[in-house]
Amino acid sequence: MKRPYAQLAKCAESQALRKAFPELGAQPTAEEMEGKVIDHIDDMPGIDISPAIDRLIGCQTMSDLQAEFADAWTQYPQARKELTAAKDTRKAELIREEISNDAA
Q1: Which ranges in the chain belong to alpha helices (H)?
Q2: 15-20: long-range contacts (C-beta < 8 A, 24 or more apart)?
Q3: How far apart, in whole angstroms, are the C-alpha atoms of residue 38 and residue 35?
Q4: How far is 93 from 87, CA to CA, in rounded Å?
Q5: Quick check: 40 pLDDT over 60?
Q6: How many CB atoms sit inside 10 A of residue 79's CB?
Q7: pLDDT over 70 for what percent of the chain?
């Protein structure tokens, strides 16, 4: 394993976030999802949800994220699982950024 202390730190941070924010549940953090691709988006022929995913990922505040998610939820009901995964990933990133800013 490369850099075991860094891996341990990431795992500890992820667990701390899950304990502090149980509404995130067992959702993976951005670091845990790094390099992974949601494969089954391509299983929905004729539906391109990438603009909605891009808007979710680009949100800078929780309120913007909630509004974009609500719009995407109604616009793409057949892709709610993918939209929820993108929203949860961005939510975890925003929480982590907020914690980092508070610590600084």
Answers
A1: 4-20, 30-33, 50-57, 62-75, 80-103
A2: 17/92, 17/95, 17/96, 17/99
A3: 10
A4: 10
A5: no
A6: 21
A7: 76
